[in-house]
Amino acid sequence: MNKQLNIGIIGYKFMGRAHSNAWLKAPLFFDIPAHPVLKVACGRQQESVSDFAQKWGWEETETDWRRLIERPDIDVIDIALPQNLHYEIALAAAKAGKHIFCEKPLSMSSRQAEEMLKVCEDNKVVHYLNHNYRRVPAVAHAKKMLEDGKIGRIFHWRCCYQQDWIVDPEFPLTWQLKKEVAQAGPQWDLNSHAVDLAHFLVGDISTVSCLTSNFITERPIANENSSGNLSAEALGSEKGEVTVEDAALMMVRFKNGAVGSFEATRFATGRKNRLSFEIYGSKGSLVFDMEKMNELQYFSLADPEGDQGFRTILVTESAHPYVGNWWPAGHIIGYEHAFVHAVVDFVKAVEEKTPISPDFSDGLKIMQVLEAGLQSAESGRQILL
Amino acid sequence: MNKQLNIGIIGYKFMGRAHSNAWLKAPLFFDIPAHPVLKVACGRQQESVSDFAQKWGWEETETDWRRLIERPDIDVIDIALPQNLHYEIALAAAKAGKHIFCEKPLSMSSRQAEEMLKVCEDNKVVHYLNHNYRRVPAVAHAKKMLEDGKIGRIFHWRCCYQQDWIVDPEFPLTWQLKKEVAQAGPQWDLNSHAVDLAHFLVGDISTVSCLTSNFITERPIANENSSGNLSAEALGSEKGEVTVEDAALMMVRFKNGAVGSFEATRFATGRKNRLSFEIYGSKGSLVFDMEKMNELQYFSLADPEGDQGFRTILVTESAHPYVGNWWPAGHIIGYEHAFVHAVVDFVKAVEEKTPISPDFSDGLKIMQVLEAGLQSAESGRQILL
Amino acid sequence: MNKQLNIGIIGYKFMGRAHSNAWLKAPLFFDIPAHPVLKVACGRQQESVSDFAQKWGWEETETDWRRLIERPDIDVIDIALPQNLHYEIALAAAKAGKHIFCEKPLSMSSRQAEEMLKVCEDNKVVHYLNHNYRRVPAVAHAKKMLEDGKIGRIFHWRCCYQQDWIVDPEFPLTWQLKKEVAQAGPQWDLNSHAVDLAHFLVGDISTVSCLTSNFITERPIANENSSGNLSAEALGSEKGEVTVEDAALMMVRFKNGAVGSFEATRFATGRKNRLSFEIYGSKGSLVFDMEKMNELQYFSLADPEGDQGFRTILVTESAHPYVGNWWPAGHIIGYEHAFVHAVVDFVKAVEEKTPISPDFSDGLKIMQVLEAGLQSAESGRQILL
Amino acid sequence: MNKQLNIGIIGYKFMGRAHSNAWLKAPLFFDIPAHPVLKVACGRQQESVSDFAQKWGWEETETDWRRLIERPDIDVIDIALPQNLHYEIALAAAKAGKHIFCEKPLSMSSRQAEEMLKVCEDNKVVHYLNHNYRRVPAVAHAKKMLEDGKIGRIFHWRCCYQQDWIVDPEFPLTWQLKKEVAQAGPQWDLNSHAVDLAHFLVGDISTVSCLTSNFITERPIANENSSGNLSAEALGSEKGEVTVEDAALMMVRFKNGAVGSFEATRFATGRKNRLSFEIYGSKGSLVFDMEKMNELQYFSLADPEGDQGFRTILVTESAHPYVGNWWPAGHIIGYEHAFVHAVVDFVKAVEEKTPISPDFSDGLKIMQVLEAGLQSAESGRQILL
C-alpha cells in the first residue's frame, strides 16, 4: 500500500477525535487501497487546534477552512462540525474537487441537502454521510440477513433513540438546544440516525405523523468556549429559551407496506445512548440495542417448533461483517470501531470507485422525512412524502 | 368466613376457565370477607356448558342468560364473553341488581359504555372491568412507586402489546377478526389493556394520533364450533374478508404533559404475549414486560453516582402487593394469578363497599381513546379528547 | 372420570399448601384417570390442622399419622413433612399398602433410603419422590432435547442453587439449621434437587469432591410454634449453635465422562430461589434458571454459521411438555404448577401402572451422592461412588 | 509531554497486535508522563516481523531478542509471547535494567516465577504482568465498590472462564494444547486470569481442590507457521496427543473465610470468551461477564425493601475508572481498551514510581494456586497453600 490519501479535517471536538482515531486505525486492522495521511487539522482557535493536531498527529493546522479547501495537496475534506456549518463547507469542497466525509445530520434543511447533493454529483466527488451505525457489525449483519430473505416480508419497524443528558433542568443551554445551530433537537440529532437505519433496513417511507414536546423550556446560558464534549458548564444564573424540541415521536408507513415507529428523546432517564430497533417479518424478527452493540437478537420461524426463541448472536466472529479483522470471537468491540469501518469503505470508494452509502442522496431523503415530521407535529396531520 | 357470594358465570371458553379458577383459588390463598360459590354456569350449548360445570364445580347450568339473571339466588354476574355481548347482558344484570364482573374490552363503543355505566350507577351495583394486568404484582408495585414519588414527573410512556398468532396467512378467520363481533382488532383487544395501564400509571390522555394497518386481508373461513381457545381450525378453502385491523399504533399527549406511544399487533413474529411498557420520569424510570411478569425494572437517580443502573426487582416478596400470599420469595407466579387478585378485590368491594377499579367509568374512558384512535387512523389527523 | 383416589396428607405448612393446591388443580386442567379426593389431613395440632382442612377442603382430620395409615379408605399417603419424619411414616405406609407421594429430600441417610425403597418394592406400592423441578416445562423440554440428541455428548454440567434467606445473622435458628431435623443444610435441602436434575439430565455420578462452610455459627433460638413458613421469629436474646453447613460446593465426574459442579448456599445475597444449570455438549448447550422458570436457553451448532447464539425459548407453547394444558402461548405459569404436573403423573402411575420418577430408587442415589459429599468435605478427599 | 519511553516488543501475533495498539492509543486518550515510542519489534522471522513493524509503525526490527535487550536505547521490554519463553527473556531483560511489560500467564512454574520476581526486585525494574481484565472499567469499579464496603463481608466467589474453540475434534493440535509450550490448558491460560481476579477482588486463597478432564485426547497435527492467531490449520491426517487438560475446575477457601469456585474450559459450546464472576457479600453482590464487559450487575441490601434487585450499571460514565477518557456515557468500549489502560498505568509506574499491579509477585501467587490445582487434580486431595 504505497498510495496515500491526504485528509483535511475541520472540527476537533467529540467528532474530531472520533474521526481522527478512525483515520489512524483503519490501516492497522484492515487492508485498504490507500493510506490515510492526517495532513491538516482546521479549527478557528489556533491554540486548541494545535493541541489537537499534536495529540493526534495531524501534520499541519489551519484556522480558516476556506484556505484548507484551496490546498491542492488535500484529497479529502472531513467535516466534523455541527450541522449549521455543513452546507457552505460541503459546497466549497465539492467545487474544489475534494471528496467529502461528512458528519451527520447532513444539513439544516432538505433544500440545502438537495443543493449539496447536486454540487457533489456535478463535481463527481465521493460524498459520504457518516451515519456510522450502519457499520456496526451487528447492524451490517442484520442487513445481510434481511437481504438473504431470513426475515421475509417486513411488517413492523419499532425504533427508539433514547438519551438522558438534559433531564436535569440545570443542564445549560448548549448549542444542541438552539434552533439556529441545531435546526431541531432529537428529531435532527437522533432521528436522523434512526431514519437512516429504517431506510437501510426496511425501505422508503411514504407517510409521516409526528408529535414533539418540550419538557424544560428555559435553561441556564452555557459556557461552551473550552468545552470539548457534550457536558458544558452553566455560565451563571441567567437563563435562555430552549428553541428545539426535547422529544420527537413519529409513526410512518413504508412504501413496501410495513408500518413503523420512532421515538427520540433526551429525557429517558437511565438510557445513555440506547438506539434500539425491532424488525418483525413473516419469517423472523431482529432486535438491536446500541448499548449492547455487539449483540443481535434473531427469531426464526425456520427453527423447529418448540425450539424457537429469540437468540442472541454475539456478532464477533469472522463470519460477521468487519469484526473478524479485530480480535478472536467473543472479544467485543466498541463505539469507535464503526467509524473505522466507515473509513475503510470510504477509502475504497475513493480509490476503487465502489459505491458507498449513506451518501448525500440518502441524507436528502432523511431530511425530507425529518422535515415532514416537524411539519406534521406543527399541523397535527399525517404528511405524505 | 361464613358469608357466601353466589356467582353466575356466562361463557365457558378461555375466560370462563380463567375466571372459574380465580373464584376457586381466591379463598385458598387470601382472607376474603365472603366465600364465592360457583353457583351457575351459563352457555348456549347444554352439553358444553354441562361438561364445563362438572369439571370446575359449578353447581348448576343454564342455557339462557336471561333466566340466569332472573334468579334471585345469584349475587354476581360474571360476563366471560366476547365484547359484542357485554352491553345487553350488563344492562339486564344491573337492572336486576346483580354485581358485575365483566371481561374486557368493555363494549363495542363509548356510547354503549356510557349507558352501561349509567345503569350500573343508577342501580348501585358494583361494576368491575377485568383489565387483569393492573393486579400483576409488578404492575401494582410500579403504581405504588409512582404514587410514592420515586419516578417524579413523567416524561414518557412507551408501550407495546405484541402477539404473533395470525402471522400465518392460513390462520382462519376467527371471531376476533370480524368487526361485527370484535369491533376492531388489536386496537380493541390489546390496546384496551395498554390504555388502561396508561390511565392507571400515567394519567388521562388529551390527544390521540393513530395509524392502523392490514397485512393479510383475506383468510380461510373458520370452524369455531368446538373451539375452546384461540386456535381455531380452518373450515376449507373458502376465504372471507378480515374486517378489523392487524396492527394499531398510537401517539398521545397526556394531560399532565407526558407523551406516549402504543403499538399493538398480532404480527410481531416471536412475541407471544409481550405487553411491555417503559415509563421515564424526572427521578427514575420503570420497565415491565408481561412475558417476564414477575420482574420490574427500575432506574433511580437517587442511587449514588456511578452505581446507577436499571435494576430488576423480582416482585415475589412479602413487601410487594398480593404476592406474599402465595409462596416464599423467589417462587414466581403465573398469568392466572392476577385474576385471583381481581376476585379478591372484587369480593371486598361487594362486601365492604370498598371502591374497585377499573370499573365501567374507566372502561368508558378507554373506549373514548380507542374510538378517537380509529377516527384518527381514518382521517390522518390528531384527535383532541 | 368416575374413579376416585383418596388422599391422606400429613403436614400442613408450606408443602401442605403446595400439595393440596396440586391435588385440587390437577383434574381442572388435565385429563387424569382418577379424581383425587382430599380425604384426610393429618397434623399434630388439632386446631391448626382443622383450619387447614377447612380452608383447602380436606374432608376429615387426624392428629396421629398411625391412625391415618390404618384407615382402609385411604389410597395415597402424601408426606409433606421435614425429612426426619419420612422414614418411619413411609415404612408404615408402604407396609399398609398405601401409595406414597413423598416430599424431598427423601431421608436422613442412604441407609434409611435403602430400607424405604425395599419396603415399597416388597409391598408393590407406587413411591414418588417430589423433586418437582423435573416437571417444570422448561426442564422437561430440556430432557426431551437431550434425548433427541440435540446437545450431543455432554461435556459440562454447571449448577448452582442460591438463596439468601439467612444472610442476616439475626435470622433465628429454625429447624432447617439443626442437624437432628434437617441432617444437613443446603447440601440436603438444595443440592438434593440439583443432584436429582443432574441424574435426570446428565447421568450417574462416579466421583465427588465437596467443600462446605459455615459463615454464621450461632443464631437466636427460634419460635416456630405458630410459623407456617420459612420466616420464623426469634424468641429472644438466647442463642443456639447452627449445626448444619451454610454452603456446600461439589465437583463431580459423571460415568459418561462429563464433569460437573454444584454450588448450594443460603448466603447468595439477592438470589431468592435461583436454581440454575448450564449444560454444554458437542452439538449444543442449555441454560436454565428457576427464577425465570418459563424460559430455556438453547445454543445449537446446527444453526447457520454467523447466526448462532443462545436463544431464549419461552416454554409456554402446546409443543412443550405439560404447559399446553394451561393458557395460550406466552402466558406464563408459576412455581406451583410443577406440583400439579407431578400429581397428574402420579395419578397415572397409580391407576395405569405407568412408571414414575423420581422414585425412592432415585432418592437413594441422591442420598449416596450427598453423603459422599459430606464425607469428602470432612476428609478433603475425592470420594468414589 | 516531551519525555519519551522507548519500547521493544518481542512477539507479533495476537498479543503483539493488542500491545502495539495499546502503546499507540494510550497518549491519544490519556495524559501520561511519557510518550511511548514504538522503537523495535522483535521476532524470529524477518519477513513477518518487518511486515508487522511497518503496519504498526515500529521503527526498527530485530530477529534475536538478546540483541534487543542489549540495546541501550530501549527502556521497556514488552514480552508478547507464549509462556514457555517468558522466563529466560524476563531474567535477561531485568538484568539489563529494562522495565518489563509481560503477557500472562507469567511462567511455566512457581519456581520460575520466584526467580523472575527476585531478579526484577534485585535490579529495581518495574515488572508488570498483563492480566488485563483488572483494567476493564467494570472490574475496576467493582474493586472500588468492594473497597468502599458496599459488598461487606464476602461469602462467595463463583467464577467461570468458558470458551469453545476446540469443541470440534478436528481442530488441530496447536501450541496451546502441548504441555512443553503451554504447561497446562485452561488451568494456565484461563484460570490464571480468574485467579488473578479472585486475588484482586476477594483476597488470598488458603486451600485448593481441583478436577481436570480431557474430552478429546488426539488431534490433527497443526500447521502454525503462518498463523497469526488462534485458528490454525490442520496439516493433514496425522494425529498427535493432546498433553494438556481440556477443562479445569477448582473449589477454594480464601483466608478471609469466603469460599470460591472456578471453572475453566474450552468446551463450553456457545461461549466465546465468557469470563464471568459472581461475588456475594453481607451487604450486596456483584456479577460480571466479559462478553458484556461494559456492564456490572450490583445488588444492594441498602436499597429500600421491595425495591431491591440486581441493577445493571452501564460502566461508561465519567464517574467510572478509565472510561471517561473515551466517549460520552453510553458509548461502549471494547476488548482492547483494557490494554490501553494497562499501558497508561505502566507508563506512570515507570515515570512516577507509582506501584503497579499485578506484578510478578502477584504472578507468583497465581502460579502457586494453579500448581496446587494440578497437584490436587492428580491426587484427589485438597491442597493447603
List keywords for this structure.
homotetramer, 385 residues, alpha/beta, Rossmann fold, Dihydrodipicolinate Reductase, domain 2, 2 domains, nine-stranded mixed β-sheet, six-stranded parallel β-sheet, 28% strand
Describe the structure.
Four copies of one chain form a homotetramer. With 385 residues, chain A is an alpha/beta fold. Chain A has two domains: 4-133, Rossmann fold; 136-333 and 364-384, Dihydrodipicolinate Reductase, domain 2, CATH 3.30.360. Chain A contains eleven helices and 17 strands. In chain A, the strands form three sheets. The first copy, chain A, has a nine-stranded mixed β-sheet. Chain A has a six-stranded parallel β-sheet with strand order 3-2-1-4-5-6, with helices on both faces. In chain A, helix 2 (46-56) links the parallel strand 2 and strand 3 (60-62). The N and C termini of chain A lie far apart (46 Å). Mean pLDDT of chain A is 96; it is low at 226-230. Chains C and D meet through strand 7, strand 8, strand 11, strand 12 and strand 13 of C and strand 7, strand 8, strand 11, strand 12 and strand 13 of D.
